[in-house]
Amino acid sequence: MTSPTQGLGWPERALRRLRPRAAAGPQTEPGAPGLGWPGAQEISGPADERAAGGLGSGTADDTAREAAADHRSIAGRDSDGGAVPARVRQALAGVSRETSPGDVIAPEREVPVGYPAHADTPIARAARAAVVARSGGDSWLQPSSCRIITIANQKGGVGKTTTAVNLAAALAMHGSRVLVVDLDPQGNASTALDIEHHSGISSVYDVLVEDQPFTEVIRPVAGFAHLYCAPAAIDLAGAEIELVPLVARESRLARALAGYDASNLDYIFIDCPPSLGLLTVNALVAAPEVMIPIQCEYYALEGLEQLLRTIELVRSHLNPALSVTTILLTMYDGRTRLASQVADEVREHFGAVVLDSVIPRSVRVSEAPSYGQSVMTYDPGSSGAQAYLEAARELAGRNAGLPA
Predict the structure, then answer these.
(1) Which of 175, 179, 285 is nearest to 228 (CA)?
(2) What is the pTM of this model?
(3) Closest Cα partner for 317 from 360, 285, 363?
(4) Residue 9, Ramachandran bin (φ over 0: left; ψ between -120 and 50: alpha; else beta)
(5) Average pLDDT, the chain
(6) Which residue in 288, 292, 353, 291 sits closest to 322, CA to CA?
């Protein structure tokens, strides 16, 4: 009759110690063949010397001798209880439990035909992005002169600050010298770049209202060799009221930038507040280029008409060189039909001005500012970081068509 425990990996030797026996003395019973346990072992009953002396009464020498005897008994028998042939014992004697450096464990798997070894997998893209984020990548095409780009949209929550910070970080990682001017009283761009912007420190407010030079407020961004920030403090919230009685209040920022030596910079990004007040007008007067981030939702399109009308008024009266050169689609959700429809309408209306790169919704992009980082360094392998990297590459690629 087959023991109910056979086939479960339990050695019969251990079970025999748990069962009461009618008679003492050495017995021989089969083990559980086929499971790696030795069979036909001598099992001592509970009445032998070890049981008589107690479980722990044996000496260390006795224990060692018993272990050696068990090893010889096991080594001399096969799994069916028979003697192991001499040729098998001789072959097993040369087998080590550890492999040497020269041993070949298994042949290398061949890469299937048509499947390159450097395949573009998500893990490979994340690894390459991490290397670029920590060591810098290849230098991109640089403009012949500094490009001043105002990032504006009176609708809030469309990604103006996120776009300014991450495009600046991506460009700085590839050899560009970039300055971010935080013109939003909330100071979110300063937070994302880990720049102090509490009340009482020198900020853009002092530049606009107190005529302080830009050189006294610009600070380097940690972790980047050529990325700088002019922070915004909460004092900037009252600047619009204080600018009203000043002469040429619409061009205060333009005069400050004209007095700053920008020959050592390639890009200046101006992050605007979500309004069309004096701060945004100052940004439009100071820059020849406007970038408009557009959220892929209906409300973003509804407010775009008013922004374009304001840009046209500034071009007619204050800055004839002003033009919309870049539109970036943000917060794209490929699962919804609305996002695709908005993207198609924007591309149909604005044409080549719209970047091919689209910024998807990404949790990593939202998490990065809480750590005082851009998503380019917080999680360079994320979908948001990869999208902003491609957008920055596309923006840099357009430098060739710009006038000197």
Answers:
(1) 179
(2) 0.68
(3) 285
(4) left
(5) 78
(6) 288
